[in-house]
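Please review this one.

:::
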Amino acid sequence: MRVLVTGGAGYIGSVVTKLLAEAGHDVVVLDDLSTGHADAVPVGVPLVRADVRDAGETVRGPVDAVVHLAAKSLVSESTTDPEAYWRTNVAGTLALLDATAGWGTRRLVVSSTAAVYGDPVSTPIRETDPAVPTNPYGASKLAVDHMVSSWAEAYDLGVVSLRYFNVAGAWGGLGERHTPETHLIPSLLRAAYEGTEPARIHGTDYPTRDGTAVRDYLHVVDLADAHLRALDRAEPGRFRAINLGSGTGHTVREILDAVRRVTGEALPSVAGPRRHGDPAVLVASNDRAWAELDWTPRRGLEETIGDAWNFERNRSRRDVGGGDRAGYEGVSCDRG
């Protein structure tokens, strides 16, 4: 198939693109490089540098399938700049859907998020649980789900929306290079490498086994593999939302201890108050992913952290020219 990957120069998008290319698909990447990196696009894969809202004018058809990852995705930023989230996530997806008609596209896989559920009513979270987002990011992604589901019904498009929880790890020289970095595992690894400031734990009084928040983590390759499976199983005229998670969770302290084991660094920490809006537990049920995609994660937490640690050390050495250690501002516990 000829597959367009929007956001294919980003962290997850680059791994999805590489897997698609290795599987023999004819892949094109659309990315404005606002957060992505041109050198993350595999050699031989064309990169169209453009906003997703301009997809119809910049990408020539036919396009058999689209994997749509281009989006803005920071919870805190969405509360201070909601317009950007509605313009990029919602208006951008609408423009992309308009373009698919001219391309003859029959399959669409959409990147979504656990943020659509808001404060969960049960654990693990199932796709049938209420979707009541508590921030503009989650609201914009839920709006996208409603939009693409109506397209599936009206235009016989096969659509799968994959709701991520937390993603980490690295593969094939591809890993997280966010600025700023808000995700827990790469932030802890950066702290371990730089060794100048303690990691900060946001909230130690949650009703969990050690008082810190519980989150569900996946290796980026397991996550990317689910995209290829969803693409293969997209059915004309049908919309499906599917959680991607491990079915189990780890506390922030457990992640911190795992990082210490993997890196061999002491990595001191300091406790701080909760961040507003952070739920105690976010863990996905992956029953539907198993049933409908024949998918289950294969890589465990320490392998995930180990791959991310190797990437962080190699990246940091390149950035500072041989291992000089720079300053560090602390660690956040992300929502996924």
In short: The mean pLDDT is 91. The chain is about 40% helix and 15% strand.
